[in-house]
Amino acid sequence: MNAQSLHALIIDRHFGELSPEATELLAVHLAQNPEAQAEANRILGALAITEQTVLEHPELVQMGGGEKKNAPASPIVKKGWFTPAVLAKAAAIVVLLGASGATGFFAGRTQPLSPPTPTVASVNVVPQTPRSDSPWASYRLAPDPDSGELRAVRVRN
C-alpha cells in the first residue's frame, strides 16, 4: 500500500467514514506492518493536536457561524467555444473568405472567354546525321532473318 492511500484510510477511519470491512482490513494491515503502524500513530497524533488546538482556540477556525461571503450576482458560466471572441474570429474569417472569393469571381468575369490567338513557335528541324567523330555507337532495330525477331544492330558511320 502506498503512503498516500494509507494516509487517506487512516484519516477516514478516524472520522468514521470507513465501512466496517475496510476498517477491519486496515487494522489487519497495520498489525502486520510495523512501519505502517508507526505512520498511523504519527498521523493520529497530528490529528489529536489539531483537534485540541481548535477546541482551545475556536477563533482560529470559522465553523460556519462566521460571515459568509456574498455569492456572485451572475451565475458561473462554464466557458466553451461559443464565446463572443470566438464568434468574432469566425465572422472575420467568413468575411475574408467571401471577399477573396468575390474578388476572384469578378476578376474571372472580366477576362475574355476565348483565349487570345495562339502564336506558333518556329522550330527548325535539323536532320539527324550520325557524327563520324562521336565516341558513342549508334544502333537501330532490324528484323532478324532467321528468327523474325527484332534485334539491335550497330550502325556503322
From TrEMBL:
Residues 148-157 have a biased composition (Basic and acidic residues). This is Uncharacterized protein. Residues 119-132 have a biased composition (Polar residues). Residues 112-157 are annotated as: Disordered. It comes from Roseimicrobium gellanilyticum.
